Amino acid sequence: MSILNAPIRILGCGSPLMGNDGVGLKVIEVLQESELKDLKDIDIMDAGVCGLDLLNLLDDAKKVIIVDAILANSPPGSVHHIEGKELLEGVEFHPLVSVHDLTITDVLKIGEQVQELPEIVVIGIEIGSIVTEATLEISPDVLKGVDKAIKLIKEEVFSSL
Fold it and tell me: In sequence order, what E strands does the chain have?
C-alpha cells in the first residue's frame, strides 16, 4: 500500500547535496507553495534519489509525474517531456541521471514486472554534466528550467482532473 493517497502524484527526484542533480527537488519545493498544494487529488513529494523505493510511491495512483535531472545533450536548463511508456519501450533518448546505480527507466522496467504501473510522465531538466562533488548550489542556467517545468507539470495536472 502506498504512503500517498491522491490519484495524481508529483514526485521530485534528486540529491540536494549534489548541486544540479537536486533540480527536481527545487521544482517540488516551488510546487509545494503553489495553488496545487491545496488540490485534494494531488500529492506533491520529494522522492529523494529514486531507487526501488519509488515503486511504493506509484501504488494506487492514476498518474505520476516524475521531475528529475537529465543528460540529453541539450543546453542546461532545457526541459523535456518524456512519456513513461516510451521509456518502457526502450525509446529512451534522454538518459535519466541518477547518482546511484538505478535510473528511473531501470526502476520502471522492474516495476512493470511486479506491479501495475499508472500513467507516468517524466519532466526532465537538462543539467549539462554529472555532478561529482558535493554542493548545495544549483547553477543559474539549470534553475532557468524550473519555471518551464512547473508550467508543463500544471498542464499535465489540469488535463487529468
Answer: 8-12, 42-46, 63-70, 79-83, 119-126
Cα distances (Å, whole numbers) of residue 53 to 89, 104, 111, 134, 159: 22, 11, 10, 23, 27
Q: What average pLDDT does the chain have?
A: 89
Burial track 24-51 (b if 16+ CB lie within 10 A, e otherwise) = bbbbbebbeeeebeeeeebbbbebbbbe
**Rounded distance between C-alpha atoms, residue 135 and residue 20, angstroms:** 9
Q: Where are the alpha helices (DSSP H) in the chain?
A: 23-31, 84-88, 104-114, 140-160
Share of the chain above pLDDT 90, in %: 70
pLDDT at 101: 62
User: Which of the residue ranges 15-24, 36-45, 48-57, 95-104 would you say has the lowest mean pLDDT?
Assistant: 95-104
Place of cell 534522454: 94
Query: Is residue 34 a contact partner of residue 150, using CB atoms and an 8 Å limit?
Result: yes
Question: What's the average model confidence in pLDDT over 107-131?
Answer: 93
Range 64-81 burial, b when 16+ CB lie within 10 A, else e: bbbbbbbebeeebbbbbe
